[in-house]
């Protein structure tokens, strides 16, 4: 239920209320998970050379890799990883030192690099690559490698974004019950 939660240099991950973490996931160091988040099999989230923050009700699906960049003289803050609330991070996504707004859906196998900013209410297609420092603006679909703005999201897609997160909140509750009943 609680995955492999490890401290690094005396800093323990901070886990909110009703968070589900698969037992094969590894969470290290300065990582915080908001209430009702879920972290699925084989995720690695390593908050060692900077911090990772994950907002409430967000889901990090199977095989994702979450990491950060260290502070340096050229870049005094380095690149932490900040994920907003109600975000869906699809299977096998790589998030490195970037900022993700609220109600974003990141398609399977996407890669988002240091300093990129994804504003609220965005969909990123499966297999996309978001280069360092790129800003994806609110309300649009982005696809490709490197990503290009494809079109505005329609009302149905905008409504789906929080629904997708809510579906994962329900699913993790089912998993939590299942684990308790074994
Ligand atoms: C991006 C996505 C939302 C497209 O939805 P869509 O409604 O089919 O998009 P559109 O019909 O507007 O297609 C736009 C164009 O992008 C192309 N396209 C669709 N998905 C693409 C992708 N992932 N990468 C590159 N191009 C893509 C389409 O072929 C189309 O090309 P065309 O204009 O030359 O015909 C969908 O394909 C996707 O990748 N969803 C992610 C699902 C996911 O990974 N969920 C998380 C795990 S549960």
From TrEMBL:
Tree of life domain: Bacteria
**Which Pfam families does the UniProt record give?**
Hexapep (PF00132)
The record, for PANTHER family, names:
DYNACTIN SUBUNIT P25, PROTEIN YRDA
Name of this chain's protein: Carnitine operon protein CaiE
């Amino acid at each position: 239920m609680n995955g492999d939660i490890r401290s690094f240099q005396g800093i323990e991950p901070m886990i909110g209320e009703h968070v589900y973490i698969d037992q094969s996931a590894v969470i290290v160091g300065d990582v915080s998970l908001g209430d009702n988040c879920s972290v699925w099999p084989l995720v690695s989230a390593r908050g060692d050379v900077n911090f990772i923050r994950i907002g409430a009700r967000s889901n990090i699906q199977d095989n994702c890799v979450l990491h950060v960049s260290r502070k340096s003289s050229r870049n005094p803050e380095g690149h932490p990883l900040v994920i907003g609330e109600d975000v869906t991070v699809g299977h096998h996504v790589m998030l490195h030192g970037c900022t993700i707004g609220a109600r974003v859906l990141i398609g399977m196998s996407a890669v988002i690099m240091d300093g990129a900013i994804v504003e609220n209410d965005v969909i990123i297609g499966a297999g996309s690559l978001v280069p360092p420092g790129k800003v994806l603006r609110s309300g649009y679909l982005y696809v490709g490698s490197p990503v290009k703005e494809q079109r505005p999201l329609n009302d149905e897609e905008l409504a789906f974004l929080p629904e997708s997160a809510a579906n994962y909140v329900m699913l993790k509750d089912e998993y939590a019950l299942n684990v308790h009943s074994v």
